[in-house]
Amino acid sequence: MKTLQDDIQNEVGNKRMVEEKDLEKLSYLDMVVHETLRLYPVAPLLLPRECRESITIDGYFIMEKTRVIVNAWAIERDSSVWSENYEEFHPERFIDMKMNYEGHKFKSIPFGSGRRRCPGIEMGLITIKMVIAQLVHCFNWELPCNISPSNLNMEEKFRSLYSKGSTLARNTELSLDM
Ligand code: HEM
């Protein structure tokens, strides 16, 4: 959080709030958002597809009309791509990685890919960045009762594909391992 606060402080100072025009200069904020979406994709299984024709990909035969579900959550935690520390929140891994979510880079696909990928990418990114930037610019955050970050349980809650819109949530029943 300190690195992000310093980044914002350097660009924006403390005489005004963060504005949308500042976002393009906040490179560490970019990395924080990429890393957050990598570890906690909002829609971990994207939206289901139906295969239009029978096809063999990588030795796997997929029959026409098969329902195909892409596990973006697993792709974004693949140790052969993200190294052995793939479970750690480490925004710096994006330092030399030019990310865009236009659907050609398959390492991290929090907005999906192809014709049916999310049409709200820009709006989604700007909204998340503005919220995070303002929260850390205006406040210092800490866990209550001297709880250390390593004791915060970040386990996710499984929600069925069709019940709650297939979005990822934190398991708040287990929020603190005390
Ligand atoms: C951080 C914010 C957001 C994330 C992570 C996100 C993620 C996604 C994902 C993963 C999909 C499925 C793509 C696929 O299966 O390939 C999707 C679809 C969609 N999203 Fe978003 N989204 C976000 C914000 C928005 C916003 C702000 C809007 C509209 C203003 C929006 C509108 C849609 C629509 C309409 C679809 C369905 C597209 C289709 O089926 O053709 N999303 N989104």
Automatic annotation (TrEMBL):
Subcellular location(s) per record: Membrane
Cited PROSITE patterns: CYTOCHROME_P450 (PS00086)
GO MF term set: ent-isokaurene C2-hydroxylase activity; heme binding; iron ion binding
Record-stated family: Belongs to the cytochrome P450 family.
Identification of the protein by name: Cytochrome P450 family 71 protein
GO cellular component: membrane
Cofactor: heme
Signal peptide residues on this chain, from the entry's feature table: none
Major subcellular location class: membrane
A Pfam short name: p450
EC number: 1.14.14.76
Record key words, sorted: Heme, Iron, Membrane, Metal-binding, Monooxygenase, Oxidoreductase
List of residues binding heme: C118
